[in-house]
Structures are given as C-alpha cells and as structure tokens.
Amino acid sequence: MSLIRIAVLATGDELLNGSISDTNTRDIALLLGPAGYRLSTGRSVPDRPEQIVQALRQLIPHHDVIITTGGLGSTGDDLTAKTVAQALGRPLEENGKALEMIHKRYAEMGRELDPVVLRQALLPQKSVPLPNTEGTAPGFWLRQQGCDLFFLPGVPTEMRSMLKNAVIPALQRNKPGAAPMLTRSFGFFGLSEPQIESRIPYANLPQDVAVGFSLDYPLVRISLRAASDNAENLLDSAEALLVEQLGDYLVARGDETMAAHVGQLLRRAGINLSLAESCTGGLISQMLTSVAGASDFLALSAITYADSAKIDCLGVDPDIIVTYGAVSAECALAMAHGVRARSRTDLSLAVTGIAGPDGGTDEKPVGTVFLALAAENVDQVRCYQFKGERQKIQQMSSCMALEWLRRFAIESLN
Amino acid sequence: MSLIRIAVLATGDELLNGSISDTNTRDIALLLGPAGYRLSTGRSVPDRPEQIVQALRQLIPHHDVIITTGGLGSTGDDLTAKTVAQALGRPLEENGKALEMIHKRYAEMGRELDPVVLRQALLPQKSVPLPNTEGTAPGFWLRQQGCDLFFLPGVPTEMRSMLKNAVIPALQRNKPGAAPMLTRSFGFFGLSEPQIESRIPYANLPQDVAVGFSLDYPLVRISLRAASDNAENLLDSAEALLVEQLGDYLVARGDETMAAHVGQLLRRAGINLSLAESCTGGLISQMLTSVAGASDFLALSAITYADSAKIDCLGVDPDIIVTYGAVSAECALAMAHGVRARSRTDLSLAVTGIAGPDGGTDEKPVGTVFLALAAENVDQVRCYQFKGERQKIQQMSSCMALEWLRRFAIESLN
Is B315 left (phi over 0), alpha (psi -120 to 50) or beta? Predict the structure, then answer.
C-alpha cells in the first residue's frame, strides 16, 4: 500500500490568460480519492510545445502517474499528441482502435464524419486509446520510464467520463491505490467559521479523520475526510460527534443545498407554503424550486416589488405603507397575512427590506430586512441588519427565511 | 520591452484534495494583463515544506517573478514564511514594519490583538512586508538570484487587494511590463458556439487581436484580446466588426449579465413590467432583481406554482386548466393577461412548462415550455422544447424570456 505519486498537468492558454479557472484538477481529485489515489501536485501550462515538454520531463522522474488535460481536439491549438510524440521519441501513427472509436462515436451521434477529425486517431507509437463517451477525440495512455501518462480532453464532462470509465480502471489494474479517501461534508447556517471551529470536538475525533472548512456564503461547509480501510466507521463516529455539537445548525449534507434540505422538511411536515418577497426579488422561491418536487409544498410566491403590487396583489392596507413604510414590521406582517389569505396556505412568510446599494436612510440603513411568518395562531416578525453588498444581503435574507421555515417545519414534526 | 516570465505557485492541501478549485491564478492573470504582464506557468502544491521548497527551487532559475499564494496566517498549516526562510537560508526575524502593519490593522478593525498573530511579523531576512488591507497577515517580497518572489495570502479578496495595491506597483518600478493586454468580452444568446464561430470575420480582424470562447450557459461568451500599445484602437475595430456580424444576438458586454442588459433596455424604454412564472420558479425575477434598480421597471412577479394559485391569484379560468392543462399556450396567455390586469402594467410575460425530471408525458415531454407576452394590442405565445436537466431547462427558459423582453424593449425604442 505504497503511495502512488500523481501529478495533473492542465494545458491551455485559457488557464493562464485569465479566461477561466482550472476546475479539472479538483474534479480529478474528487474522482480519484474514493479509489485510493491522491494528487501530489498540479501544473498549468499554455498550449506551447516547449512548455508541455519541459513540464513532462520534469514530472516523469518524480511521479508514478501523470494525468494531462487539454489539447486533444482537431483544431490548430490541439497539439498534445504531436508534442508528446516528439518529446518521447515516439512518432505519430494512425491507431486502428482509435480510428474505430471515432467512427463508432460519429455513428452514435448520427453525424457525418469530417475527414479532419480523423487526425484525432494519430497517436504516439504504443499508445492505448481511451474511448470518449461524451465527445469525439479519444484520449490515450502510454508508459514512459515506469510512469503512466494519461492524456485526457480538457472539456470537463469529457474528462470526467474518461477518467471514471477508462483511467481509474486502468490504474486499479496496474498501480493499486492506497486505502480509499472518503469525504463527508456538512453545511451549517447561523454560526461563524470561528464559532463552529470552537465547537468541533477535535480532542474526541478519531485520529485519522481530518476536518476541512470552506465557505459557501452564507453557509459554512465542513468536510470530514478519512483515508483508511476502516474509513466508513471512522467517519460514522466523527459525524455523530459533530452532529451532537452542531446538529442544531446543520442545514445541508453532502452537496445538498439548504433549500433542498428545507424543502424535504416542509414536505415531510406536510406544510403548504406561500411566500411574499420584496427585497429578495424571487431568490427564496428560486432556491426552493431549483429542486424538483417543490410543487408538493409551495403554492404561491408573490414578488411584490412595487408598493402598488403589495396593495393590489396582497391587500396590504395603503395606510400601513404611508405610516410605517414598505420596509417595516407592520408591512412585513401584512404581506404575510395577505399572501396567506390569497393562497389559503397553512404557512406564509414575507420579506421586505433594503438590499441596496441605494434606498438606505439613517433610520433604516441598507441591509435592514424584516421577516414575518404567519400561520394558524402564529405571528412572528423580526428586523435584521445584514452587512455587505446587494447580492450578499439578498442571499443572507433568503437563507434566514429558509432558516425560519426549517425551524417551523422541525417544530411541526416534533 | 522584453517579456517578464511570471509563475504562480498556489499552496494548500485544499487545492489538491478536491475541496476547492484554485481561482487565484485566474484572478492574478486578469489583474496583471492590463499592466502588461502575462503568466508563463502555474503550479499547485500541498502545504508541505519539502514540496514548496522543491517548487521554488525549480521555478527561480527560469522565472523573473514568482507569485505565491497561501500559507500566511497564524495557524498550524500556515508555514510559508518558515519554509521560505529555511529554503533560502534567510532566518526568520521579527520585521518591524510588518509588526506595525499588524497593530495598525487590528486598531482599524477595533479588535483586540491575540499575541499569536504577532507570529505573522516573523519574516525571512531582508523581506519587504506587503500591507493586507482585507485581512491581518502581511504578505512579503524578497529577491533571490534576480527573481522577485511575492508571498500573498490565499484568501481571494486579500490576495487581490495586495496584488493590486502592492505587487503591481512594485513590479512596475522594478520590472516594467510589456504592452498592456486588454480584453473585451461579449455575451451572445440564440446561436450555438459553432454558429457564432462561423460568423466571426476572422479574415478582417486586426492581426494582433485574439478571439477566445467560453460557455456561460446558455450564453456564449467571446473575448477579444490585444497586447499592444495600440490595443484600444485594435479592439475598437475588432468590436465594430463583431457587432456588425453578430450584434443582433449580443445580450451582454463585459461582466454584465443578460438580465442587467435587459433591465437597462426596459428602463430606457420606460416599460412597466409584470411576470407570471411557473416552471422557472422565480428565476426570471431573481435575475432581474439581482441588479439594483429593478424597481424602476418591475412591479409584480407572481410565481404561481400550484394550479390553485394560477386561478386565485391570476384569475386563470379553471376551464382552461381542465381543458388544455396548466402547461399550454392557452394557460400561458391567460397567466400573462391575468398578471397584467392585476398589476396594471404595460407589459406582462408568463412562463409555464415542465422543468422535470418528473411530470413529462408523450405529448408534452420534459422541457416543454410555453412563453406568452401581453401588451396593448399585442398577444404572443410560443412553445419551446428545451433539452437537459431541470436547472438547464429553467435557465434556458428564463433567458428566452429575457430575450423576448429584450426584443420588445428594442422595438419600443425604435
């Protein structure tokens, strides 16, 4: 169970001229981890033969595996195969299997084959072509000085599928990995990163479990990571300890969004919901409906941006707006009552506030947000002062609204 | 005007274990480009002294500048200064200016200084500290074998501000850059990437202008890039040619979103808008209101997810839903009329469809979406068949709705 040293070499001018960030390295790490492989290092170089060659020459002696992404198509800047052929002294030759893959792929897509794409079958001598189930250019694999070199497309969907279906199986046959690296992640809302860190029971966590933090504003995401044949059990006990300390703030598991989590709770509680949004402009509704099945609990959301809409559509008394303003506890409650009456739902929630950058006053600065919740025998309203720019205030307001819904659903379930 | 060779070295376990993608390299490229500097290569290594040292040793002889990110805080894995001190034989010493910066920063924040953070003032001998206007840990700069090494924080906001305020001015004094690299970007909607590519007048473009593509679903983004003292003029003529060929599909400039662009047009045209959304669940409203000033044109958006909401809130005739279904041209038009009547707006737009993954039938498969638009003497309705997963269908439907609004606003302005 020795550690396999793996490098990623991402090629492409776009990675260095500011066009895009490299996301392939992260995707490769995520796919290799559970199979027992970890990345030692990553590089990005432009589409220049001399830089690709230099990087490969530096990497080969110190790594067992090199995964290269990019430069596999049939256009001018797709020059990986040619460059590798020269660098390793293995002239390009037409690879019969690669040719077959290309023909098969075009037949599947029902598209006519442009002879230009047949160039994609020219691979360095003794290469093993790797099928591309998402695109047309095959990848390839060759071995040099004991190092396995895999050349994959740069397009993320093509790269991921080739890695999963061809590279990992090849690695597992040739260079078995160490223990799988398993990761579980959790999203928390309502505590800052330092507050969460201070509550993590580090002393009691199994020794081989590593804790990682990342910010997914306004959530704090924590990952628990273990590399061991016993990883599942280690993570089970670490998770139990984490939930014991922080379960009250846990609003998402894995890649789940907070809205998906809250939607599940509303569904389980059999709640029928309506929303009245003003400063969040539809964000709460959009979050809840980006997950399938929102129609099980969401009946109506009225985005009453204009005062006239609050009056006409929700029946807010114009006197309330004149006397207290549209951003007030009174208006928030009237909006909640109005949308509840109109939609005849169990529960309604309203948000009104000043997302900025304009519209703030001394008394009600940008970031002043009122939330109101109405249900049978329930009336709640509260004023918050959120900080930051418009989009942060909208996100924070929406997540706070989801948090109110989450707590209401949990109480209903208890 | 020789080319300065610049490497980025990103440090951090999180960059190689799948937690996050490195976005700092792109940000650095974007900030350096206009100042006349380009990146030659990028590397990522974990928080391990031996790997950081190895990378620096390999990079120093071949680069004029190395920008390192990460590892500057005061916790256990923040070990850049210590590692560099050992690698370059320059023992750590308390740097008076760095100490001053830290004290000043804490005073500004009004926070009490934990003695632990004073460790951040321990820098390799002969380092120049770089102020951190966003966080607490100063960066530092030192020169070794003619190479300028800058050590910046890994947190993107801190990194960017230090790069802008300290690194670029230092570079410009010490190693003047080449001609500035200027970039202009444009977002197109309604044509595929190959369709756009075939219309770009490559033959007529100024020779020194490079064209880049990126996908920002469902928009295709094109960047024009020129590195020359005459770059502004070159880009002006390239832009004119591009707009001549593709102007009809141009829906965003620079970092602008399509919604911001359409919002501007609606505002200029003095249109008062209401929306009725079903399958898009608030996404159109959220897009329009994520930009400040949407209250100038958006009065009301009714997200009528349930049939009962379509009937109660928009006054859709129940017979329409029974006879034609909620996903039908008839219902879309009735929704548009209903929301227009209720909000007394000039223009209204309605969307109803099947975003999936469930709810499709043979006759109306997932991706069937009806758009309807109503204004004085105008009634439009059309059925689309969009492909892909739920979120793609929602995005495509919302952008198509924005496209209808864009064309309506342009016609009103003409």
Answer: left
Q: In CATH terms, is domain A182-253 a member of 3.40.50.720?
A: no
CA–chain centroid gap for A156, Å, is 14
Q: Which residue of A has its CA nearest to B279?
A: A289
ipTM of the complex as predicted: 0.86
pLDDT score recorded for residue B216:
84
Q: Tens of pLDDT along B172-211?
A: 999 888 888 888 999 999 998 888 989 999 999 998 898 9
pLDDT tens-place string over residues A214-235: 778 899 999 999 988 899 999 9
Q: Say yes or no for a CB contact (<8 Å) between A286 and B281.
A: yes
Helix (H, G, I), strand (E, B) or coil at A129: strand
Instruction: Name the pTM for this structure.
Output: 0.87
Q: Nearest chain B residue to A42 by CA: give it.
A: B44
A400 to A125, A252, A317: CA distances (angstroms): 60, 14, 26
Cβ within 8 Å, pair B41-A51: yes
CATH 3.30.70.2860 domain range(s) in chain B: 182-253
| CATH number for the domain whose boundaries are A258-413 | 3.90.950.20
Phi and psi at residue B113, to the nearest 5°: -90, 120
Would you give the distance in Å from CA B406 to the centre of its chain? 22
Which among B18, B25, B29 has CB closest to A33? B18
CB A279 within 8 A of CB A307: no
Structural contact between residues A385 and A367, judged by C-beta atoms closer than 8 angstroms: yes
Parts of chain A belonging to CATH 3.90.950.20: 258-413
> What would the pLDDT profile of B60-92 be if each residue is shown by its tens digit?
999 999 999 998 876 656 688 989 998 899 999
Residue located via tokens 């920008």: B67
Q: Please name the member of A283, A298, A305 whose beta carbon is closest to the beta carbon of B295.
A: A305
Cα distance between residue A297 and residue A375, in whole Å: 14
Cβ burial, residue A112 (10 Å; 0-12/13-18/19+): exposed
Q: Which candidate, A336, A332, A324, places its Cα nearest to that of A374?
A: A336
What are the residue ranges of CATH 3.40.980.10 in chain A?
6-174
> Which chain A residues are closer than 8 Å to B313 by Cβ?
300, 302, 313, 342-343
Q: Hey, is the C-beta of A146 within 8 angstroms of any chain B C-beta?
A: no
Of the candidates B106, B103, B79, B82, the one whose C-alpha atom is nearest the C-alpha of residue B92 is: B82
The residue of A25, A41, A279 whose CB has the most chain B CBs within 10 angstroms, and thus the best one to mutate to test that interface, is: A41
Task: Supply B1's token pair.
Answer: 């005007």
What whole-number distance in Å separates Cα of residue B228 and Cα of residue B234? 9
| Phi, psi (deg, nearest 5) at residue B241 | -65, -40
The CATH superfamily of A6-174 is MoaB/Mog-like domain (3.40.980.10)
Non-local (6+) Cβ contacts of B410 within 8 A are B265
CB A189 within 8 A of CB A249: yes
The shares of helix, strand and coil residues in chain B, as percent rounded to the nearest 5, are 45, 25, 30
Burial pattern B158-171, b for ≥16 Cβ within 10 A else e, equals bbbbbbeebbbebb
A23 and chain B in contact, CB less than 8 A: yes
E strands in B327-404: 347-353, 368-375, 378-385
Two tokens at B331?
């219902």
**pLDDT tens, residue by residue, A173-201:** 998 888 888 889 999 999 988 889 899 99
Chain B residue with the nearest C-alpha to that of A37: B17
State how beta strands B92-94 and B122-124 pair.
antiparallel
